[in-house]
Amino acid sequence: MTRQPSEPYRIKSVEPITLLAPEERAERIKRAHYNLFKLDAASIYLDLLTDSGTSAMSNRQWAALMLGDESYAGAESFRRFEETVKELFAKRFVIPCHQGRVAENLMFSILLEPGQFVPNNTHFDTTRGNVLHKGGVPVDLPCAAAHSDEAHPFKGDMDVDALSKLIADQGRDMVPMVIMTITNNSAGGQPVSMRNLKDVAAICREHGIPLYYDCARFAENAYFIKRDEAGYGDWEIAAIVAEMFSLCDGAMMSAKKDGLANMGGFITLNDESLYRRLTELEILIEGFPTYGGLAGRDLDILAVGLREVLSYDYLDFRIAQVDYFANVLRTAGMPLVEPPGGHAVFVDAGRLLPDIPAEQFPGQALAIAFYVEGGIRAVEIGTLMFGTTDPDTGATIPARQELVRMALPRRVYTNSQIDYIGEVAERIVQTKDSLRGFDIVYQSQFLRHFTADLLPVEEQKLSVR
Ligand code: F0G
């Protein structure tokens, strides 16, 4: 039995949710062309699509919202937000923006020349997209353990030898920055060790290359360091965060995760001339630098959320709940990527459904089954999301793995709801041989998974005939 601390909060406000009848669910997913992004949220019972912007706010955050100062320039809300970010991360400048991808866009617009390389332990999709958009070359350098079955507590680490080699091969001038994604979302939400951050920082210092974090889940990462890395067991979470950030030149954050807020992001850094250039561009595309695309009340919510997330009791419950969820799915017979990450459990649909070929999207088949069987929404992370087409043969080039990500929103669902997901998972495992793959009947040129229309394989054949 996995250890499960009980919730360090009680519920003051509830949001009713409804489980539709099975026939109604089957009808709605058909009308949504078997694309879970096209379902109305009201059709869903438990929504595990993402942990981003889906947190429940605390009473203190709701109270802070009423203090929002909506002045265009110099708002008090900004001062409170700025003070919090400086206290936590100890950088000189703070630039708010409305979400993480804007922070990326601003940074790469200023720092990147076409053809330059950006090493990252693993780029998140928007980070990769923004590097490419500026003509840069995103390079993923995950450690060897990242994609192995080996049990390793810090599978989010960067391969430091590969980083040194990239800098040696391309030359320092072709590498304008190094990014560490904390935790490593695209590598299964796995944490990065302090040892690895120190090693990467040393290489960056040696070559005079700035090191930036993509730190959407920095507090969850700090918890893993405290729990699993030798020497940190009796450190406060805030002290671990301070140590982590003492190693970098700055950070970009999607505050929709560990900011415990529904919207928000920022850049924080020391370099004054870079700060000036970033804010010039920000005024053009996002807003004045004391609000950056956010309402004053959003900044106040973040000022509170960024402190609350450092609570050991909160993090201990949070990470244990993800573990509990993993255990429930494992017991139901679902093969998982091990160990589970900090914010999500990744089910290995390729292993569960070996008879469905990659070009028929086994991950999508499983994600649809979770909805039809139980009103649960998750997201395919496999060939539908990352597969490409060979331009010569037209054949599908599959993704590395066929996964379904089940992300847990923060402070939102209870363990009895997680037990319910376990029951649904068990029913799916028992009837897995009846699951069918899908064909795409419409797709866009970029990021097709958001808008594609699909049909179950047999229906597709019937409709063609
Ligand atoms: N970096 C990481 C590591 C992320 O996980 C995300 C978003 C972003 C940057 C972009 O931030 O959405 O605020 O613009 N991740 C979400 C997810 C969407 O579902 O994992 P954003």
Give a description of the structure.
- The chain has 465 residues and is of the alpha/beta class.
- The chain folds into 2 domains: 22-44 and 312-464, Alpha-Beta Complex (Aspartate Aminotransferase, domain 1), CATH 3.90.1150; 59-308, 3-Layer(aba) Sandwich (Aspartate Aminotransferase, domain 2), CATH 3.40.640.10.
- Helices cover 41% and strands 13% of the residues.
- It is built from 17 helices and 16 strands.
- It has helices at residues 22-31, 59-65, 76-89, 100-111, 125-133, 160-170, 194-207, 218-228, 237-246, 272-285, 296-308, 312-331, 349-352, 362-374, 383-386, 415-430, 457-464, and strands at residues 46-47, 93-97, 117-120, 137-140, 178-181, 211-214, 250-254, 265-269, 344-348, 376-377, 379-381, 388-389, 396-397, 403-407, 438-442, 453-456.
- A 5-stranded mixed beta sheet has the order 2-8-7-6-5, sandwiched between helices. A 3-stranded antiparallel beta sheet has the order 9-14-11.
- Strand 12 and strand 13 form a beta hairpin.
- It is globular.
- The protein starts with 21 loop residues before the first helix and ends with a helix.
Structure, briefly:
The protein has 465 residues and is an alpha/beta fold. It has two domains: 22-44 and 312-464, Alpha-Beta Complex (Aspartate Aminotransferase, domain 1); 59-308, Aspartate Aminotransferase, domain 2 (3-Layer(aba) Sandwich).
The CATH class of the largest domain: Alpha Beta
Task: For the largest sheet, list the strands in their spatial order.
Answer: 2-8-7-6-5
* Rg estimate, integer Å: 22 Å
Number of distinct beta strands: 16
What is the number of independent domains?
2
Distance between the termini: 52 Å
**Can you say what the CATH homologous superfamily of the largest domain is?**
Type I PLP-dependent aspartate aminotransferase-like (Major domain)
